[in-house]
Amino acid sequence: MRLTSGARLFISGLALVICGFLCPRVSGQNAPTLQEQIKAQYKLVKIGFGPSGITVTSPGTVLSVQKGGLLGVPPQAMAPCAAKFQDGTLKGPTGMCPAMMKQISRLMQVGDKVYPLKIDVSLDKDRVVFQIVECDSCNGAQQPSFFKSEVIFQFPSGSLQSTGVSKIVDTIGQVLSIDSGDDSQQQGGQGGQDQGSQDQGGQQNGNNQQGNNSNQGGNNQGGGQQAAPAPEPQQIEKGQTPEQVKAALGNPEKIVNLGAKMIYVYKDIKVTFLNGKASDVE
Fold first, then answer.
1. Measuring CA to CA, which residue among 159, 153, 118, 113 is closest to residue 134?
2. Taking CA 254 as the corner, what is the angle to CA 252 and CA 257, rounded to the nearest 5 degrees?
């Protein structure tokens, strides 16, 4: 059957209309959204709740806090108090949230390690929202706390859609940089070095003591006695772990466990730990 020119025009127009509806949808399905592209740069942590409490079932990308001002709240809190990063400046949370959480919140410190818990991209508001949770094992915390926080990365109006993912990641990295593991390796190496110094010092003290005993025996034979030199005092420094403090002072007489805060009580001094690191000595 031969179609008239009008029928052919009608069929061609109908095909264009159908393609106008279907073709963009098919191609759009293969193009990842901006949120998917950003999430591809970070692995979100997975947390489970069991009889023993909160546990990390699947670790995420370890991030290192680069700026002060992030307020951590307990995991039981409905929502964290959000800080805002805009034009290179991080502003801490304001309003009722920090006031209501004052008694149970604490500021995260520069260098603290955290996991990304949730990432939201809002194109209409030109913002990327990061919700994070403490990596207690990375921070050497004796008692897991899983405090969480939130950062709003605010971009100029109308710019987020056209901003490249690499530039967005660079902006996020000014507050939450991806941890390469060098810090933890350096800390581990430093700890091993400190321990090696202590072992070497102990060996040297043992050799000195053995030499002093020999000298003392010789002096006794000659009728005299020479006193052994006093051992060097042990040093406690800020940032040491409980194991390093025990190596220097021995086991404490009492331990006060307050979750992220722990106090070792000795006869003459008290050593306070925050997130597994010595923060104060009294």
1. 113
2. 110
pTM of the predicted structure, to 2 decimals: 0.56
pLDDT one-digit tens code per residue, 214-273: 444 444 444 445 665 655 666 778 888 888 878 888 888 888 888 788 888 887 788 888
Cβ(152)–Cβ(83) below 8 Å: yes
Domain ranges of the chain: 34-180, 236-282
Look up residue 113 and give its two tokens. Answer: 């390690």
Say if strands 106-107 and 148-154 run parallel, antiparallel, or are unpaired. unpaired
Alpha-carbon distance 36 to 14, whole Å?
35
